């Protein structure tokens, strides 16, 4: 890690400058994380008077609990579906905008604003559209003999949160795909065109491979987003139900710990999630920063 | 474009129009709901075209006090304060810590950098209970301090400033030192003015971030006087009354989502810069 060639010769000042950030980090990030690790190895007696060390018990119980294993599977389905749908949709739109010259920025504006919609509002909007009494889509689906009721049907509830979460993420992916597309050298495209390659062939043999750093970066960011930033969407649409069908890992930490007050188990779940985030962050910084080049 | 293919040009516009329509669809439906009177939405099929009641509904949202939530203007005020404090706080503590890390060599510098880096790996979502407990022990529940300070540490903003400072020519600092400027004078008169665009771009991104917070306010506020808009509209939408007033709820939702959207639309260049730079 570098500094400048010459630096200021002050003794106390740099500590004063980093102090606010470090204090907040220590008090509100590192200390609570340490507490989570600590209480994931402890059990409280029913009155909360004493705690004792129980080793890996919470973890062992979690991994033998069908509800938790199902939640892992559900979160994986949710994260992959949202990443694939929102990235696919965004890539198509970015490729289209990249072909335009004059109207590109107008279209970009019209596609970027959902970034500013918060997850909980996105949840409310889609919930309103899909709600079974006045919602417009259940009414339309009724015409083709599909009964929509995400309050009873777990698969439909999952589809609902996938749609809401993908919708919100499209603009982010669009922005980065567009930036990636704009950095693909035009000369390569022109050379391929002279050699007789059509637009589709050019896309798959030149543009898409050159986009792979962007795609990889976005995949990591999207997995991070669906795992951790979609709390509001789940809370506003399904509340984890029906029958746990949309109880993702983050939502489960909240319901088990904050609502159910099952501290040991919730802490163990927190620690497992921390391991997930750390893995994703390490991957992002080790492999994405290097920006695979051809 | 490489070659002229009229069919592809038409297809491009068709794809984009379809995309714009799909993206706008949920908000359009909310807008339709918010522009009708109280009876239009409860009697069978929903109308597909906007009605003329938007103003009346908005006025009702702004003036009426609803059960279980604070008055709308108060929640808007709380959201605004929360977003502004988070924005300014994050920028302030990040820019000074980046300054310390780049322009000084002191024991513990690398450790400080790594501690800040670690915050990236500990989002609030994964340490809900212990963080809540810390805030409760400090007596910060139901306060602006509790709503904002725990969210103010920012690794991304620190990295952004660090990266930017590294691109500033060393000669500037050497010249300032030769002329007798101390570190604080250099920071105030040279670094801050040079960082203007970065600060502006961060302001846009961080304001949106602060405005969107939902889980954290949900945890640390029990007193409705500290509810934010995101909590308020969720609570309004979740009432399981026999007769939910969709037109009013959707008007409130539209008002709550409007400020950050306006920022993205009217400050698009800063927004794009902020988003792309913070992800480097």
TrEMBL record, chain A:
Q: Name one GO biological process term.
A: transmembrane transport
Q: Where in the cell is it found?
A: Cell inner membrane; Cell membrane
InterPro entries reported in the protein's UniProt record: MetI-like (IPR000515), MetI-like_sf (IPR035906), UgpAE/MalFG_permease (IPR050809)
Q: Which residue windows are transmembrane per the record?
A: 12-31, 76-98, 110-129, 157-181, 202-221, 268-288
Q: What cellular component GO annotations does this protein have?
A: plasma membrane
Location, primary (coarse class): membrane
Gene3D superfamilies recorded: MetI-like
Domain ABC transmembrane type-1, by residue range, is: 72-284
Q: How does the UniProt record describe the way this protein sits in the membrane?
A: Multi-pass membrane protein
SUPFAM superfamilies with a match to the protein in the record: MetI-like (SSF161098)
Q: One Pfam match, by short name?
A: BPD_transp_1
The UniProt keyword set, sorted, is:
Cell inner membrane, Cell membrane, Membrane, Transmembrane, Transmembrane helix, Transport
Highest taxon of the lineage: Bacteria
| Role this protein plays | Part of the ABC transporter complex UgpBAEC involved in sn-glycerol-3-phosphate (G3P) import. Probably responsible for the translocation of the substrate across the membrane.
Q: How does it assemble?
A: The complex is composed of two ATP-binding proteins (UgpC), two transmembrane proteins (UgpA and UgpE) and a solute-binding protein (UgpB).
Family under the similarity heading = Belongs to the binding-protein-dependent transport system permease family.
What name has this protein been given in UniProt?
sn-glycerol-3-phosphate transport system permease protein UgpA
UniProtKB/TrEMBL annotation, chain B:
Name the SUPFAM superfamilies on file: MetI-like
Give the UniProt entry's GO cellular component terms.
Answer: plasma membrane
* UniProt-annotated location(s): Cell inner membrane; Cell membrane
Q: What is its main location?
A: membrane
Which InterPro entries does the annotation name? MetI-like, MetI-like_sf
Record GO biological process: transmembrane transport
- Which residue spans traverse the membrane? 7-31, 80-104, 111-129, 141-161, 198-216, 246-267
Membrane protein topology class: Multi-pass membrane protein
The UniProt entry, under CDD domains, shows: TM_PBP2
Listed A to Z, the keywords are: Cell inner membrane, Cell membrane, Membrane, Transmembrane, Transmembrane helix, Transport
Q: What Pfam families does the database record attribute to this sequence?
A: BPD_transp_1
- The organism's superkingdom is given as Bacteria
Residue ranges annotated for the ABC transmembrane type-1 domain, each copy included: 76-267
Role this protein plays: Part of the ABC transporter complex UgpBAEC involved in sn-glycerol-3-phosphate (G3P) import. Probably responsible for the translocation of the substrate across the membrane.
What interactions and quaternary structure are annotated? The complex is composed of two ATP-binding proteins (UgpC), two transmembrane proteins (UgpA and UgpE) and a solute-binding protein (UgpB).
What family classification does the UniProt entry report for this protein?
Belongs to the binding-protein-dependent transport system permease family.
Q: What is this protein called?
A: sn-glycerol-3-phosphate transport system permease protein UgpE
Report the source organism. Answer: Devosia oryzisoli
Instruction: From the UniProt record, report the name of the gene that encodes this protein.
Output: ugpE
